[in-house]
Design brief:
The complex is a heterodimer. Chain A is an alpha+beta fold. Chain A has a single domain, classed as Alpha-Beta Plaits. In chain A, the strands form 4 sheets. A 4-stranded mixed beta sheet of chain A has the order 8-1-10-9. Chain A has a two-stranded antiparallel ribbon with strand order 2-3. In chain A, a hairpin with a 6-residue loop joins strand 4 and strand 5. Chain A is globular. Chain B folds into 5 domains: 42 residues, no CATH class; 99 residues, ADC-like domains (N-terminal domain of TfIIb), CATH 2.20.25; 163 residues, Rossmann fold, CATH 3.40.50; 164 residues, Dimethylsulfoxide Reductase, domain 2; 143 residues, Beta Barrel (Barwin-like endoglucanases). A 7-stranded mixed beta sheet of chain B has the order 7-6-18-17-16-8-9. In chain B, helix 11 runs antiparallel to helix 15. The longest helix of chain B is centred in the N-terminal third of the chain and has 15 residues. Classes of the chains: A alpha+beta, B alpha/beta. Chains A and B meet through helix 1, helix 2, strand 2, strand 3 and helix 5 of A and strand 5, helix 2, helix 3, helix 8 and helix 9 of B.
């Protein structure tokens, strides 16, 4: 039995599409920036992306934002297809782990992921000196030929767990904040341990606006989306 | 602070000595390096240290915490205690590391013997400072200072004292951020309404209805991060109340995308619509009696049919919006950038502020917040100059009245329309000195570049009043890492040269900029973090990231009343409607802002929220317009105004009026480093040089353009896929 169930809630009523989470994630996780040519080729990469959907036609047109990142599935399609066990389920954190130095780049996981949140390093990342000094020493820089994806900032989870362990106490709610959650101005992202009944995510779920992405596939995502865009009652 | 890199550390260890003496980066002074055998108190391997400072990526003045590991800045986070942004930080704020570690920073003082040659010769700082001194000494009062809105408040204050002492005109504080958003117009309007010339602030967190007239307050307007925090609270009010947000703008911004109702108003008619709402509140008698009465006092004679038609609404639908506003508990109206970008700017902003007057929420929760006094420390928010002031300086340069031009934090050659004559005017200035950290478009025309420390290396403060919750704030900026290059703080350079100049020596007696900062800060009353005595007060100021009182002081509200009917002149457009059939709309996206984001790859490579395009400039047009003109996404088009031309690929955008063409600001740099250079187009080229509204503001939102295909194609670097494209890649099971 896992000790934690790290869970994210995305309140679509508050997401303004401002990209603060996207850049915060690049900074925290050493995610390389794809050049213009690479983006044109469809090889751009962000561990968190904000999808924008249009509804209706002018003048009654609406845009809707949907932040999408690894859903940390309870029954993850990416895990069983990995021939090298680079993609596996962690017992401790209840997360989908990607072990970069096991990965041989078959990209089966990326093909099998229904959310398209796994990104392949088509080339080795380059950081023009002295930009390499911005790199976070808590996170590996992935080389060419390796799949990568959102980790819920597992380095922050581990650091908080070690601090709490050293102080002989459980991790407090709010002590772990992935970079995206920390940056989000409008509090659209909420993160915590669902197994802690006092945590904000546990108290907020089940929620009357809640849904999960592609729920019918049975992937059991650890990310809850709260429907936005219309007046609702209760929060 | 000593910068200890791993390499230096290894060198020292290998030498087998307990201490070693190495020269600092530039050789200007000796630095003692102690290996980690005797670790600095705050340094533990693998354990980060956080320093509080102030973000300088836009003028808002957000508080930041910078995470330092082994002498390197590795992450910028929001300061949770800070009243401006409450621990949150936008995309540009996150990217500040890429200004610090930008590979194209000017590594030390350089001279350029032939302007525009881009050949720079390093010179010693002593020589550079001497040359600056000689230039200033000969020029006397024929000196001009051009600052930007991200120039630290302490430099604005020092330069102002300096200019006064040598008899020169006060510094011009103008850049595209201020010009586009009409900060000067907003300040003037606030002075008229509240008695203080300061940028307005709105308590969105406690509002229940927001009517925004083109204010992209969730993107780049005033304090986008703070307003983002407010918006989150606005959407989660007690008892499940969600707030109603209506956005009036010709092209959907990312704020507009979050609106409950997006109203595509014709460019120029925003003030007309605001007046129509007042008229409807008065005529229909909706809302509390005092609001109806106030509306009746202010209601102008408005053609309701025309106002509704310019919004693609019926009069009944517009009346329903008026009812929503009037019947709300705490409605608020925001005057956006486009209002300030035309000839009737002040009257248009006033028309929107009239809605706030009618709401009766000025100085109340959910309303327009008044500026707060900061005690007797001599600190006040730095005011911005108008485009007209900048244009007047260009004219003086052109007339040969300026011998020395000092530029800090602004990039006029990129930011001013070519029609303003800025490039020609620079040729008439004997000595141009740039203090900017990159070789930007203006530095190309400079004789001397004396790079300042970037904000993560340097000292400063920023006065923000009011911030969220109505608190007055003096935000603290301190070095979080040692200088990466042989750069000198501009404040110190200025104080050094001032010592030799008649008049200036007495006016600027401080030994260095830190002495000046300390004197100013310790004169403040005791703030939220206490601190008895100047030493403790100064320490707390740095430790907590600034000064603010524990509770918002009771503001003295000026007697504000609806001042009767204020007519707004019909908008005048630049360009003949027959020749130039479309309205031009410019916008800043939350990544590149006014163009200073372009030198940072994180901001270049992250997608624009609405189009998902990165690295490029594009031209947005409505699908109907695109069909009529036979233009498809990816066709390179030529946009021509009466003043200039730009070319960029088209992007068919569903949420823009068919009579409007929109372009993002920020690209089209010829310099500013490898990531910015030769990429996209600068739509400022489409604007005229003459200021509008009695010579005050940059007229960017009343320009007409025509558009035509060039016959070329360019692939757009976008992250989105359409349903058809996705179906090709992944056939349905």
């Amino acid at each position: 039995m896992a000790e934690h169930k790290w869970t994210m809630i995305v309140d679509l009523d508050k997401c303004t599409g401002c990209q603060a989470c996207v850049v915060a994630c690049h900074a925290e996780n050493n995610v390389p920036i794809a050049s213009e040519t690479e983006v044109v080729r469809g090889r751009g990469l962000h561990w968190i992306r904000i999808e924008r959907y249009w509804e209706g036609e002018f003048p009654n047109v609406k845009a809707k934002f949907l932040p999408v990142f690894c859903q940390q599935c309870g029954s993850a399609p990416c895990e069983p297809v990995c021939p090298t066990y680079a993609s596996y389920h962690s017992e401790q954190e209840n997360l989908n782990i990607q072990v970069y130095n096991r990965c041989v780049g078959t990209r089966y996981c990326g093909n099998n992921c229904p959310y398209k949140v796994r990104y392949f390093n088509y080339r080795a990342p380059e950081f023009d000196a002295p930009l390499e000094q911005q790199l976070n020493p808590d996170v590996t820089v992935r080389g060419a030929g390796v799949m990568e994806k959102c980790t819920f900032c597992i380095q922050r989870i581990r650091r908080a767990a070690e601090t709490a362990n050293a102080e002989g106490r459980p991790i407090a709610d709010g002590e772990v904040q992935p970079a995206c959650v920390q940056a989000c101005p409008s509090d659209a992202l909420i993160f915590g341990d669902k197994y802690d009944p006092e945590s904000r995510v546990a108290r907020m779920t089940p929620h009357n606006r809640q849904f999960k992405l592609l729920e019918h596939l049975g992937t059991e995502p650890a990310v809850y989306y709260l429907k936005g865009g219309e007046t609702h009652v209760g929060d | 602070m000593t910068q200890i890199t791993r390499r230096n550390f290894l060198k020292v260890s290998a030498a087998g000595t307990a201490t070693a003496i190495l020269t600092g980066c530039g050789g200007e002074r000796w630095v003692e390096l102690v290996p980690y055998v005797v670790a600095p108190e705050e340094q533990l391997a693998g354990v980060p240290t956080y320093f509080a400072s102030t973000c300088r990526q836009c003028p808002a003045g957000c508080g930041i915490l910078v995470k330092i590991m082994n002498g390197r800045a590795v992450k910028i986070e929001g300061n949770p205690e800070h009243p401006v942004n409450r621990g949150r930080l936008c995309a540009r704020g996150q990217a500040g590391l890429q200004l610090l570690y930008n590979p194209d920073r000017v590594p030390g003082a350089v001279e350029q013997s032939e302007r525009g040659s881009r050949r720079y010769t390093p010179i010693a700082w002593n020589e550079a400072i001497n040359r600056l001194y000689e230039g200033l000494n000969e020029a006397g009062s024929r000196v001009a200072i051009w600052l930007g809105t991200t120039t630290s408040g302490h430099l604005v204050d020092l330069f102002t004292l300096f200019a006064d002492a040598i008899g020169a005109q006060p510094p011009v504080r103008y850049d595209l951020y201020a010009g586009y958003n009409g900060y000067n117009v907003l300040e003037t309007a606030s002075e008229g309404l509240l008695g203080t010339a300061a940028l307005p602030a709105y308590d969105l967190a406690n509002a229940d209805v927001i009517f925004s007239f083109g204010a992209d307050y969730l993107g780049t307007w005033l304090n986008a991060t703070g307003y983002g925090v407010g918006f989150g609270q606005f959407r989660a009010q007690p008892y499940g109340k969600r707030g109603v947000f209506v956005q009036f703008e010709p092209r959907m911004s990312n704020s507009g995308a979050s609106a409950d109702r997006w109203v595509p108003v014709r460019p120029g008619d925003e003030a007309l619509v605001a007046q129509a709402l007042v008229r409807l509140i008065a005529d229909e008698g909706v809302g509390p009696a005092e609001r109806v009465e106030a509306a009746r006092a202010a209601a102008a004679d408005v053609d309701l049919e025309a106002a509704a038609a310019s919004c693609h609404l019926t009069v009944a639908e517009l009346a329903a919006l008026a009812r929503t506003f009037a019947e709300a508990q705490r409605p608020v109206a925001l005057p956006g950038a486009a209002l300030a970008g035309r000839d009737n700017a002040l009257a248009a902003v006033a028309a929107v502020q009239t809605l706030n007057l009618i709401a009766g929420t000025i100085g109340q929760p959910g309303g327009l917040l008044p500026a707060q006094a900061l005690g007797d420390a001599g600190l006040r928010p730095a005011v911005t100059s108008s485009y007209g002031d900048a244009q007047a300086l260009v004219a003086r340069m052109q007339a040969g009245e300026i011998d020395v031009l000092l530029v800090h934090g602004a990039n006029p050659v990129y930011e001013m329309p070519p029609e303003s004559g800025i490039v020609e005017a620079l040729a008439n200035v004997q000595t141009v000195v740039s203090f900017n950290p990159l070789v930007d478009e203006t530095a190309v025309y400079a004789d001397l570049i004396l790079p300042d420390r970037v904000y993560l290396e340097g000292w400063g403060y920023e006065v923000v009043t009011p911030a969220l919750g109505g608190l007055p704030v003096v935000s603290s900026q301190q070095p979080v890492v040692g200088p990466l290059h042989d750069v000198r703080a501009t404040g110190d350079v200025l104080l050094t040269v001032a010592r030799g100049l008649a008049g200036a020596a007495q006016a600027l007696p401080w030994e260095d900029e830190v002495a000046f900062l300390r004197e100013r800060i310790t004169a403040l009353p005791v703030g939220a973090f206490g601190g008895e005595g100047p030493d403790l007060q100064w320490a707390r100021f740095q430790q907590f990231g600034g000064w603010w009182p524990a509770q918002a002081p009771q503001a003295e509200l000026p007697d504000v009343e609806v001042g009767g009917v204020a007519p707004v002149a019909a908008p005048q457009y630049q360009g003949d409607e027959g020749e130039f059939p479309y309205h031009l709309h410019l916008f800043m996206n939350p990544l590149l802002g006014d163009g200073r984001g372009a030198s940072m790859p994180w901001l270049q490579g992250s997608p624009d929220p609405m189009t998902t395009i990165s690295w490029q400039t594009w031209v947005e047009l409505n699908p109907v317009t695109a069909d009529e003109l036979g233009i498809q996404t990816g066709d390179v088009v030529r946009v021509t105004s009466p003043f200039g031309t730009v070319e960029a690929p088209a992007y068919v955008y569903p949420a823009i009026r068919p009579d409007t063409i929109a372009l993002p600001l920020g690209q089209g740099h010829t310099d500013s480093g490898r990531y910015a250079r030769d990429r996209g187009a600068n739509p400022v080229r489409l604007l005229g040089g003459e200021p509008g509204d009695n010579g005050a503001n940059l007229m960017w939102s009343n320009v007409r353009v025509k558009i035509e295909r060039t016959g070329e194609q360019k692939s757009l670097a976008r992250f989105e896929t359409t349903v058809e494209e996705a179906a090709d890649a992944h056939p349905p099971i």
